[in-house]
Each structure stands twice: as C-alpha cells, then as structure tokens.
Description:
The protein is an alpha/beta fold. 40% of the residues lie in helices and 14% in strands.
Amino acid sequence: xxxxxxxxxxxxxxxxxxxxxxxxxxxxxxxxxxxxxxxxxxxxxxxxxxxxxxxxxxxxxxxxxxxxxxxxxxxxxxxxxxxxxxxxxxxxxxxxxxxxxxxxxxxxxxxxxxxxxxxxxxxxxxxxxxxxxxxxxxxxxxxxxxxxxxxxxxxxxxxxxxxxxxxxxxxxxxxxxxxxxxxxxxxxxxxxxxxxxxxxxxxxxxxxxxxxxxxxxxxxxxxxxxxxxxxxxxxxxxxxxxxxxxxxxxxxxxxxx
Length: 257
Ligand code: 8X3
C-alpha cells in the first residue's frame, strides 16, 4: 500500500469498522471518526497493536469541530492521503408525501454536506502533495429507485455524481477518487438506524436471503486502494447474489383524475 495515513468516517460500526480493520492490517495510520466515543475507544484498543490510531469523537455535521479536530492531529497523522467517506444513513422508508422533513434534512446533512465538507477540507493537501485517494461509500439506491428510498436514494446519487465530477477536476494530478456502491449489507446498523431502533423491522429486511457483509465492502475498498498508481476505479457497484434491480413499478388501483 502506497498510502500512509487514512481518515475513516463512520468508523464505529459496520462497513466503517471493517474498513478500519483492513487498513490497520496494511499498517496504514488511522484517524477514526464517529460520534460514539466508547465504540471508538474499543476499536482503538482492538487495532493499536497493528498500527497507530487517532480517534475523533464528533458529529461530522458540525463543520467547525471537524476542522478544528483535523487541524490538531499529531504530526505523524498530518499528511492525510486517504479519505474514506463512510458515514451515512437512511432514515425512514415512508413514501415522500408521508415522510418526516427532519429525516430528509439529516440525510442530506450527513450523506451529502458532511461528505463534501470533509472532501473540501482534505483534498487541497492531497493535490499539493500529489498523492491521495478519496473513496466515497455510495449505494445501489443511488442508481435504482425503490419505494420509500426518496431522499436517501437521491443523496446516494449525489455521492456517485460528486465522485465522478471530482475525477474531472483532478485530471493532471495523481489523486484518485472512487465511489463504492453496495446493495444490502447485513451485520451492520443500517436497517436498525433506518427503522429507529425497531429490531423486528430491521431483521425482516434480510430474512430469507444472504446480504453482503461489511467485510465484502472493505475488501473492495482495499482492492481499489491497492491498484497500480495509474489505475483509477471510478465506480464499483456490488449486490448480494440474492438482490437485483426491481421492475419499473406500476399501479392497478390508483385513482386518476
Ligand atoms: C443500502 C442499500 O438496498 O438497502 O444502501 O437501500 S439498500
């Protein structure tokens, strides 16, 4: 691995945690960000025999705190060459006309604004040193709509399109950008968060099928990061074998005026 220091957001569980584990095994020094300090401390103690770890417990939508914390990392962490924008969430599965505005606002703030903010903060250093890689964790929901995904799907379409636009801006530099777009991922808090702690509803999502696991996604992240320096993987879409894009929907009962 050519890279030495990585920031991983959303590192406390699921895909973010799996990415932190696989980068630690490559001896990449890690700045791990998430809201829950206890989870970050546990992760630090699990990984510190493999690499140096710096944890930042903060809400990534609080931009000033994020930039203050990243500006005061110890010297050995200051030349950040990898940013894994993994923090993201879905809230609710209601149709748009019944959805909660607060949920929409939170998804935009975390999935789009915070991701852009971190990119804006760290990209200039990567360009200046002419080395770096930003990996954005998108979703198949950014490409394939489904009922109730509305703003969640739209935020992930933003992630996909922002990534490929960065690619255009970075031409002429060695900095790479990738969006990784997984479908259903089990063993994570994704559905529990979407259904606001309702464990039965969260379990139902994966009943009778084998979803991806966080390690399937972290393997892909590792693969894109370790491609030869002249290779840029723009997008990678991953689904479990048991998932597929659905038919274009229709209604037989709708009342038309
Ligand atoms: C998660 C993928 O299919 O559960 O981003 O919306 S899906």
